[in-house]
Every structure is written in structure tokens, then in C-alpha cells.
From TrEMBL:
Residues 5-67 form the MIP18 family-like domain. The gene is minD_4. It comes from the Bacteria. Gene3D superfamilies: Fe-S cluster assembly (FSCA), P-loop containing nucleotide triphosphate hydrolases. Residues 76-98 are annotated as: Disordered. This is Iron-sulfur cluster carrier protein. ATP binds at G112, K113, G114, G115, V116, G117, K118, S119. It comes from Boseongicola aestuarii.
């Protein structure tokens, strides 16, 4: 049976940190994501060794509670190649949402569920906006599955000449930074500063973005701490919600919309991804995940439907190959939806 965030937190309150306080109240549980029976979170610790026992107890307790998959990532010092000093390793200081100097607008690309194509949409939108002449940044804030380095075809570690400012990477006209570029490839998150949330804030303020018309932020799926932190720390000009048409994805998308409404972030629109499938050999059209679900949901909620993006092999191959479809086949029917959204955002004054 699906677990709720409250059940998971209550369960984790039964696990003590070495200080004697339980790991939730000790502030160690961060970026908690509960999806059906899968639970993921980050334990923010200075050094992992003393917390190993608490981690395994938490895993056992969550499995007993009914979790089918548990992923707990400890933030810790990376030994072989320390990333640049991102500051003092302090907690994000409490402050309200702020405009980031040099960045005119910030748009979050979000989804309720993982795997619906949020990162594919974010990278194609960023490249399509760049092709329209906009100055575009892309921040990959998906701490669990950073995929933008692969999608934009960039690799290598960002340089930090003075140990403070981080120089982002650039490809296809897009300036990009990803948490994935600051970690070792086989580790989900290893951060020198102990605070993941502080790290997100620092990515916004210490990365040398230059002057941008728009920064696109690729969020982790769901409605967790990263989303909240972003909305609290940065002035978000709008959110785009990506969903596949089937009910279960829409149900989660609705939660995302609710969260943005509560945070007073305007929803610019929804995108239905994997809308129709056209067979690349025979041209037959079929609706793998149903069709029109997002359109009717958007109508119901009074939110614009920005595009219906087909499920097409070329979109996946382009994303995996490091040159999104709007770059590799800009005139194709598969690229059209993304390019239309980019133009619409510019027309609305949102990008
Ligand atoms: N319209 C599409 N046609 C074909 N393949 C697609 C399409 N959209 C996304 N994909 C593929 O589906 C997979 C998941 O997409 P993506 O990583 O963008 O999802 P996501 O929502 O960002 O997932 P997560 O949040 O879990 O990282 C990728 O392999 C991507 O290439």
C-alpha cells in the first residue's frame, strides 16, 4: 500500500542519531521523497561513519513499514577530488525569496512523478530558447537523478579559480550547472558543504551565470524540500508542469500544482509528454499512455496547455546523445512542440 510522507516521518522519528535526538528532529532528514512505496532522502552529516547504524536502522524500519525501495544518501566529504569550496559549509541563512542579480527570470520545470520527461522538456526548452536568441541558463537541481550533463552533452568538473565562484559549462548556447557535475559519477550526492539546501542556494548565487534572460530549473520529481527551498530562496517567475496523460501521473501533477499555488508561484502551463506514439517504421499512431488527459486536466484547472509532445524514438536518442531534438533535428515534427512552447514563453514575456 502507498506510504504517506507523514507515516514515513513518524517511522523515522523512531530512529535516534548519535546525539540521542531522533534523526528527524535533529534536522538530518532532507529532500524527503515518498512515491508510492518508494522512499528516498538525504541524511546531512559531517562525516558518515558515526551515522551508519542510524542509516541501517532507518532502512530496516522503513522496509518493515512497507517500503519496497529505500534510498538514503549521506552527504559527506569527497576524498579523492574535493569540489570547489562553496562557502563556509553553513546552513542556508533564513531569508525570503530574492531576485538573483543578473538573472531576469526563473522558470521551474516540475513534475509530480519521476520519468515523465521533465528533464527532456527542460533541456529542449532551454536549447529552443537559446536558438531564439535568448540568454539561457539551465540549473539541474535534480539531486537524485541529475541528467542534464548527459542531455546537453557536457562533462568534466566545473572550475573554480578562486575556490568560491564556480564557472558553469556551456553547450548548444545554454549555460548550465548541475549538482551531477559536482559529485563523483557513482555517488548520488557527495557534497563538501554539509547542507544540501545551502548547496542549492549556493548554486544560485555562486555560479557565475552571467547576464541571463531566463534561468530554467530542472527540479526533482514530486513536492519535496528542494522545491520548497527553491521557492523560499529565489523569486520564481513561473512553473511549467510536465505530465504524461494517464491518471496516476495526473494525480501527482495535481499535487505539484497545489504546491506551487500555495507558494504563490504562477503556473505558466502544463505540457503533455509522451502524448501519442507514431511508429518510426510504419507511421501508425497509438496512444500508449492514453491521450488528452493533460488537456482536460489543464482545462479543468484553468491552466494553459502549452504543448502535446509525442513519444518518439528520436526524442530519446537525441536526449541520450547529448544534442536535444531541437538542436539535432530542429525542423522535425518532434522538435516542433518544444519550439512552439519556447516562442510562446517569449511572447508572454516569461522568457
Ligand atoms: N517524448 C519522448 N519520447 C521519447 N522518449 C522520451 C520522451 N520524453 C522523455 N523520454 C525519455 O524518457 C526517459 C525519462 O525522461 P526524463 O529523464 O526526461 O524524465 P524525468 O521526468 O526528468 O525523470 P526523473 O525526474 O526521474 O529524472 C529518458 O530516457 C528520455 O530520453
Amino acid at each position: 500500500m502507498a506510504l504517506t510522507r507523514e507515516e514515513v516521518l513518524a517511522c523515522l522519528r523512531g530512529i535516534d542519531a548519535p546525539s540521542g535526538t531522533n534523526i528527524v528532529d535533529a534536522g538530518l532528514v532532507r529532500a524527503l521523497q515518498v512515491e508510492d512505496t518508494s522512499v528516498r532522502f538525504v541524511m546531512e552529516v559531517e562525516s558518515p561513519a558515526p551515522y551508519g547504524e542510524a542509516k541501517s536502522k532507518a532502512e530496516d524500519a522503513l522496509k518493515k513499514l512497507g517500503a519496497s525501495a529505500v534510498s538514503i544518501v549521506m552527504t559527506a566529504h569527497s576524498t579523492p577530488k574535493p569540489p570547489p569550496d562553496l562557502g563556509t559549509g553553513r546552513k542556508a541563512e533564513p531569508s525570503g525569496p530574492e531576485k538573483i542579480p543578473g538573472i531576469d527570470r526563473i522558470i521551474a520545470v516540475a513534475s509530480g512523478k519521476g520519468g515523465v520527461g521533465k528533464s527532456t522538456v527542460a533541456s529542449n526548452l532551454a536549447c529552443a530558447l537559446a536558438a531564439e536568441g535568448r540568454r539561457v541558463g539551465l540549473l539541474d537541481a535534480d539531486v537524485y537523478g541529475p541528467s542534464q550533463p548527459r542531455m546537453l552533452g557536457v562533462s568534466g568538473r566545473p572550475q573554480s579559480p578562486d575556490g568560491k565562484i564556480i564557472l558553469p559549462l556551456r553547450n548548444h548556447g545554454v549555460t548550465m550547472m548541475s549538482i551531477g557535475l559536482m559529485t563523483n559519477e557513482d555517488q548520488a550526492v557527495v557534497w563538501r558543504g554539509p547542507m544540501l539546501m545551502g548547496a542549492l542556494q549556493q548554486m544560485l548565487s555562486q555560479v557565475q551565470w552571467g547576464a541571463l534572460d531566463v534561468l530554467i530549473v530542472d527540479l526533482p520529481p514530486g513536492t519535496g524540500d528542494v522545491q520548497m527551498t527553491l521557492a523560499q530562496k529565489a523569486h520564481l517567475d513561473g512553473a511549467i508542469i510536465v505530465s504524461t496523460p494517464q491518471d496516476i501521473a495526473l494525480l501527482d501533477a495535481r499535487k505539484g500544482i497545489d504546491m506551487f499555488n500555495q507558494m504563490k508561484t504562477p503556473i505558466l502551463g502544463m505540457i503533455e509528454n509522451m502524448s501519442t506514439h507514431i511508429c518510426s517504421s510504419c507511421g501508425h499512431e497509438e496512444h500508449v499512455f492514453g491521450h488528452g488527459g493533460v488537456t482536460s486536466e489543464a482545462n479543468k484547472l484553468g491552466i494553459p496547455l502549452l504543448a502535446e509532445i509525442p513519444l518518439h524514438l528520436d526524442i530519446r536518442l537525441a536526449a541520450d546523445g547529448g544534442a536535444p531534438i531541437v538542436v539535432s533535428k530542429p525542423d522535425s515534427a518532434q522538435a516542433k512542440g518544444f519550439r512552439t512552447v519556447a516562442k510562446a514563453l517569449i511572447d508572454m514575456g516569461s522568457a
